[in-house]
Amino acid sequence: MTRVPRGYIARRRRTKMRSFASNFRGAHLRLNRMITQQVRRAFVSSHRDRGRQKRDFRRLWITRINAATRIYKVFDSYSKLIHNLYKKELILNRKMLAQVAVSNPNNLYTISNKIKILN
Predict the structure, then answer these.
(1) Where do the domains of the chain lie?
(2) Which interval of the chain is the signal sequence (predicted)?
(3) Residues 12-37: what's their mean pLDDT?
């Protein structure tokens, strides 16, 4: 029986999956079924961890702001600082506040003074 050359669609699909697996090792790089499974698993992990990364960074920023407010005695706690910021309509997100708290605590004093002046 003679050999029948098949179409290119399946080969194109496998090549695409193989391009995603270019940094894998061992069988995860060489065997098509294993490549498909590992790439699918990697995509699931990356999708899940994008949300997790946002949560983790928000927790980090809150921890930094809380530590700075207690160390430099700006307010008693993080929650009071945030409450007063919202009450006085000073819109600063947690990422910016954490950067200010870590890099330049004097600016944290300035922000707290603005809150206290507006009382």
Answers:
(1) 6-115
(2) none
(3) 95
